[in-house]
Amino acid sequence: MASQRIYVGTIGEGVWRSLDDGATFTRAADGMFVECHVRALAVHPDHDALLYAGTEQGLYRSRDGAANWERVDGPLNDRQIWSILIPPRQPDTLLVGACPSRIFASRDAGRTWTEGLADIRPDCPRIMHTRVTTLEADPDDERVFWAGVEIDGLHRSTDGGRTWQRLPGAGLLSQDIHDLLFLRDGPRRVILAATNADLHRSTDDGRTWQPLELKRTQPWQYCRTLAQPVGQPATALLGHGNGPPGSEGLVGLSSDAGASWRSATFPGRANSTIWNFAVHRADPALIYASSVSGELYRSTDAGASWTKLPREFGEIRALAWTPLAI
């Protein structure tokens, strides 16, 4: 296992960074409000020292591995950012999802921005405002992007993020979309959608969905985050728990494109729902996870088993890692 940098986005404590494989952490928020809320972190696919953070004051960028930050000026200023996407095949493109729900795109690395035309419900009585919880690049068509909205279902753009259409979501038990993941079952493409009411699977490009009745094999059906070990197109990891934030959480593992699930080997149950995963191409077997109530976990076997890191935080909403040398 090569040495790595670990980045943790917290609520009320900004960004923290470890340079010793998680043994110790120091705050790495110079240039932003030190007590800001960080709900999204994204590392550039070609430059590990370049990363973005989504805060309640807008979008921030670091060019030196979180040693210093600068605000990316534009229409995102003072907006609450919930999701960031840098498409792997379009490294100068940025898509950012906000709360209340709006989607913005830059095609020149953040110098200029346009807002996508999207009919997304902005308000929700239970959570006040809907939010764009996940943005995903379609792995088979670089013009297509997907968005999951809490609580307003699935939206898709087929023109590079300029316009967005809401998908009917037939079969979804809930329009509370937390995360999306694309998998391969042989030649067939599979999409997973994590919701508050179950994990859902589509084999027809999102036209219809089948609830997986996760409670047949897992303790809970509240599903928060999904990840794929690099280079394993049929493998999926699921972070779930007994609610938001919940008081218990585990990692689920599927090796058959989401058709069946088992629990990963875990050191007891987490103190809350597993909210984030972090993967990197530099070491496909090395994956980090965090619970929303502040615990950190590491796997060195692509998610099959996990150990707990000693450091705990108050509330973690974002997670990333890169090789130590940048």
Mean pLDDT across all amino acids: 96
Helix and strand content put the structural class at: mainly beta
Q: Tally of extended strands?
A: 30
Q: What's the helix-strand series? A: EEEEEEEEEEEEEEEEEEEEEEEEEEEEEE
User: Could you name the CATH class?
Assistant: Mainly Beta
Please report the number of helical segments: 0
CATH topology: Methylamine Dehydrogenase, Chain H
- What is the total number of structural domains? 1
Shape: globular
Ends apart, CA distance between termini: 16 Å
CATH homology group: YVTN repeat-like/Quinoprotein amine dehydrogenase
Rg, Å, rounded = 18 Å
CATH architecture: 7 Propeller
Outline the low-pLDDT stretches: none
Key attributes of the depicted protein:
Methylamine Dehydrogenase, Chain H; mainly beta; four-stranded antiparallel beta sheet; 44% strand; 0% helix; 326 residues
Please describe what this structure looks like:
The strands form eight sheets. A four-stranded antiparallel sheet has the order 3-2-1-30, with no helix packed on it. Strands 4-5-6-7 form a four-stranded antiparallel sheet, with no helix packed on it. It has a single domain, classed as YVTN repeat-like/Quinoprotein amine dehydrogenase (Methylamine Dehydrogenase, Chain H, 7 Propeller), CATH 2.130.10. The chain contains no helices and 30 strands. The relative contact order is 0.14. The protein has 326 residues and is mainly β. The chain has strands spanning 4-10, 15-18, 26-27, 38-43, 51-55, 58-62, 70-71, 80-85, 94-99, 103-106, 114-115, 123-124, 128-129, 131-137, 145-150, 153-157, 165-166, 177-185, 188-195, 199-202, 210-211, 222-227, 236-241, 249-254, 262-263, 274-278, 287-291, 295-299, 307-312, 316-323. The protein is 0% helix and 44% strand. Strand 20 and strand 21 form a beta hairpin. It starts with a strand and ends with a strand.
